[in-house]
């Protein structure tokens, strides 16, 4: 196995140093690295000048679409996109066809990830059978399976029935699982097309009000407090939700929250284009919401950045707004968007990036071999990033099988130069490693 000596690279915010990846682990850091490399058979040296070494990123919220919609993404293509974005692990959401609601399906997805070898895939289990919100799925069997599921979600659908939600929260306690909620009151969002506000009124599109998210966030905080369980809020998007989570944390509850890259960069003004590439659930909100979500990330109220990478076919996006599917891809642009919205604005250090995009998502997923700091002896899951580079986003250049990126034509900062999964390069020189 080739070893990699990365010279003069900054580990997060630290002064430049040398880093040696060998035998799947971080073998040496600092003056020892070059010396240790001399004893190795096959060593490739990478000039790390100007680059930042980040722990391999971990996504808690990816849609890989396999099984069922392999025309839009597969485990293989989605994890290639993940590697290009600096990720070494993704959690694969349960809204596949068939739904990931049995031990059999989650094991299948888990093994597809292992075979592909681009990033570790940790399947999320459905909360309810068929995402129907009626009957609890086989949570225990999924937890006990080879996929070791710890995160359960009906994402795409809200677990709306409070009795079902209460039971799910109770059930996962026995194996330290958590329920990741897609917070959307279905009655308050019937027919909704975009954020409810000034822009929706002007465009004449049916609104998706903030309260439809906040009502579920508030209810679930109360339910999890009552049960003494672990709740995760997916793709939080409103200023009011940030307030609710801040209050829950102040009261010591085990509630975590996630923000997507698109909810910290884009607003409902994008809907004026009538281009459904900007149609997503929850919808892009107002600048005040964007500011509040950024603030929530900066002060730790929002624990993580999750991509909600949601590939869709051309025919489901090249259409009028009302007919368009909800969702946008994001694995290959997440780090750049976080740099632009959080680092370049002075709200985040690179340590904060590592915390929200690697350490904490892995901790919420109860992963033990991902999301670890770059320290000698830890698995060599590393991303090398050039924060000074810039690139204009071109949909056809995305490695994902789908092209529904909302950043087409936009110049974003930064570029992933290399990604290593347990010491194996998945990306080098900014391109996928050919196999
Ligand atoms: N975010 C979206 O708009 N769509 C997601 C589902 C979801 O995350 O709710 C999808 O699966 O396409
Ligand atoms: Zn969702
Ligand atoms: Zn999702």
UniProtKB/TrEMBL annotation:
* This protein's UniProt keywords: Hydrolase, Metal-binding, Pyrimidine biosynthesis, Zinc
Q: Where is the active site?
A: 308
Q: What is the reaction catalyzed?
A: (S)-dihydroorotate + H2O = N-carbamoyl-L-aspartate + H(+)
- Textual note on the cofactor: Binds 2 Zn(2+) ions per subunit.
Any single GO molecular-function term of the entry would be: allantoinase activity
Q: Which NCBIfam families match?
A: PRK09357.1-1, pyrC_multi
UniProt-recorded name of the protein: Dihydroorotase
Tell me the organism.
Bowdeniella nasicola
Gene name, Swiss-Prot/TrEMBL: pyrC
């Amino acid at each position: 196995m080739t070893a990699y000596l990365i010279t003069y690279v900054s580990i997060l915010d630290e002064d430049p140093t040398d880093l040696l990846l060998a035998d799947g682990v971080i073998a040496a850091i600092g003056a020892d690295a070059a010396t240790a490399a001399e004893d190795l058979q096959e060593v490739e040296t990478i000039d790390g000048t100007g680059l930042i070494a980040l722990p391999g990123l971990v996504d808690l919220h990816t849609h890989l679409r396999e099984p069922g919609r392999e025309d839009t993404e597969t485990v293989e293509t989605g994890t290639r996109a993940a590697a290009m974005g600096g990720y070494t692990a993704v959690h694969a959401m349960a809204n596949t066809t068939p739904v990931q609601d049995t031990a059999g399906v989650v094991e299948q997805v888990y093994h597809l990830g292992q075979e592909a070898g681009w990033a570790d895939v940790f399947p999320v289990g459905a909360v309810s059978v068929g995402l129907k919100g009626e009957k609890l799925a086989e949570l225990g069997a999924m937890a006990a399976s080879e996929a070791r599921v710890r995160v359960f979600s009906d994402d795409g659908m809200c677990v709306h029935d409070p009795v079902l939600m209460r039971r799910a929260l109770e059930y996962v306690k026995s194996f330290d699982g958590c329920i990741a909620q897609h917070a959307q009151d279905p009655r308050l969002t019937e027919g909704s097309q975009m954020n409810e506000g000034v822009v929706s009124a002007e465009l004449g599109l049916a609104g998706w009000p903030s309260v439809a998210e906040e009502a579920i966030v508030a209810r679930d905080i109360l339910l999890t407090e009552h049960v003494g369980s672990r709740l995760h809020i997916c793709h939080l998007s409103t200023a009011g939700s940030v307030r609710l989570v801040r209050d829950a944390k102040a009261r010591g509850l085990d509630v975590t929250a996630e923000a997507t890259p698109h909810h910290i960069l884009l607003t409902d003004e994008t809907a004026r284009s009538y281009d459904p590439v900007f149609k997503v659930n929850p919808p892009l909100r107002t600048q005040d919401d964007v500011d509040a979500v950024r603030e929530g990330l900066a002060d730790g109220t929002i624990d993580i950045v999750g991509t909600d990478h949601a590939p869709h076919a051309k025919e489901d996006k090249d259409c009028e707004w009302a007919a368009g599917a909800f969702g946008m891809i994001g694995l290959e642009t997440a780090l750049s968007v976080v740099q632009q919205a959080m680092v370049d604005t002075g709200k985040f250090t690179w340590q904060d990036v590592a915390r929200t995009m690697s350490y904490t998502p892995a901790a919420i997923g109860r992963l033990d071999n991902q999301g670890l700091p770059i320290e000698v002896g830890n698995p060599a899951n590393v991303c090398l990033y050039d924060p000074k580079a810039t690139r204009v986003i071109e949909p056809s250049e995305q490695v994902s099988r789908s092209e529904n990126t909302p950043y087409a034509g936009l110049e974003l900062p930064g570029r992933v130069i290399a990604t290593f999964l347990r010491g194996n390069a998945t990306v080098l020189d900014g391109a996928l490693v050919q196999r």
